[in-house]
Amino acid sequence: MGLIERTSTMIKAKINKILGKFEDPRETLDYSYEKQVELLQNVKRGVAEVTTSKKRLELQKLKLEENVKRLDDQAREAVTAGREDLARIALERKSTSQAEIVSLTSQIADIKNQQDKLVATEKRLSAKIESFRSTKETIKAQYSAAEAQVKITESVSGISEEMSDVGMAVQRAKDKTENMKARASALDELVEAGTLEDVTGGTQDDIDRELSKIKSKGDVDTQLEALKKEMGK
Fold it and tell me: What is the Cα–Cα distance from 46 to 199, expressed in whole angstroms?
């Protein structure tokens, strides 16, 4: 195989692949069915034409047979009348008609054979087409069901992917919330332990805080002594 032939084969293969991708088998089946029906119609027309031809020959044969009988009667009358010359002419014409009848009989038999073959072909083709039609509808129904299932599955898959993304986002939000709560709790513990300065408590250091505690305690003691004196204790 030459380079051109290989290239041509590759191009055809790619074209067939592309066409196969976009081809709807239901349309292909319907098209095939229509072509078979057209073929059946052609066969039926052929049967009708052959039948018409046979009928035409049969009518022609019938006329010749009637003519043979008429010529035979004429020959008899001529003999009775002593006109052998007329009898001879009638018999000659009778013989010619009989020869034509023999030929027509053979032709009619041949056409009858053709007719029988065409009728048998029509019946076989009709049965095959009906079987194909039934198979076609079954395949189309199966394809439509499979197509619908694919679409539903794709939709469900899309929803599943979206829900998966949502679930991951929710989980991330929960994780961040827990981390933030843990961080806040840790900061509170550090503030209470004095390890971490409470920015809301001003600029006091640990000495200032101790002095504040002593001052607060002194104020409480002073207030307690004053209260005791007031009550005579």
Answer: 107
Is residue 219 a part of any domain in this protein? no
- Of the CA atoms within 13 Å of residue 121, those in its CB half-sphere come to 15
Q: Is residue 228 part of a domain?
A: no
Angle between helices 25-80 and 84-192 (to 10 degrees): 170
Domain count within the chain: 1
Give the pTM. 0.51
**Domain with 111 in it: what CATH number?**
1.10.287
- The 10s digit of each residue's pLDDT in 132-177 is 999 989 988 888 888 888 888 777 766 656 666 666 776 777 777 7
Contact (Cβ atoms closer than 8 angstroms) between residue 122 and residue 78: no
Q: pLDDT digit string (tens) for 36-77?
A: 999 999 999 999 999 999 999 999 999 999 999 999 999 999
SS3 of residue 28 by DSSP: helix
Nearest residue to 61 (alpha-carbon basis) of 75, 53, 115, 117? 53
Specify the long-range contacts of residues 47-52, CB closer than 8 Å, at least 24 apart. Answer: 47/115, 47/118, 47/119, 47/122, 50/111, 50/114, 50/115, 50/118, 51/115
Task: Assess if residue 226 is contained within a domain.
Answer: no
- Domain holding 35, by residue range, is 3-167
In a domain, 85, yes or no: yes
**Separation between Cα atoms, residue 100 and residue 164, nearest integer Å:** 92
